Amino acid sequence: MVRWLLFGLVVSVFQPVADNASPIWLDKVYQALVGLIFGAACAVVFTLAENRFNTPRVNWKSWLIVLGTWLLVKVSFVSVIAMTG
């Protein structure tokens, strides 16, 4: 959980901020919140997938689940953001 939260936080906070009227710190707080939500979603999906499909904890399967989790959650987040506009 902590690794996924840190991953989501770091990846989102180090994104550039668009030039708009809101203060930069407000955009960074928004990015941090979205990153933490993304990390929490990844942690939940990864834990469920790992417990269901990789009970013996085979290393290559774990990494495959990590990549699949990131892809699934990222596509879901981008789709929701695109639909809400």
Descriptive overview:
- By secondary structure, the protein is mainly alpha-helical.
- It is 80% helix and 0% strand.
- The chain starts with a helix and ends with a helix.
- It is built from 3 helices and no strands.
- The mean pLDDT is 94.
- α2 packs across α3.
Q: Which features does this protein show?
A:
85 residues, 0% strand, 80% helix, mainly alpha
What is the topology?
Elements: H1 2-13, H2 24-53, H3 59-84
The proportion of strand residues reads under 5%
Distance between the termini: 29 Å
Class from helix and strand fractions: mainly alpha
Provide the succession of SSEs: HHH
**Helical proportion, percent range:** over 70%
Biggest beta sheet attributes: none
Figure out the total of helices. 3
Beta strands, count: 0
Rg from Cα = 15 Å
In short:
With 85 residues, the chain is mainly alpha-helical.
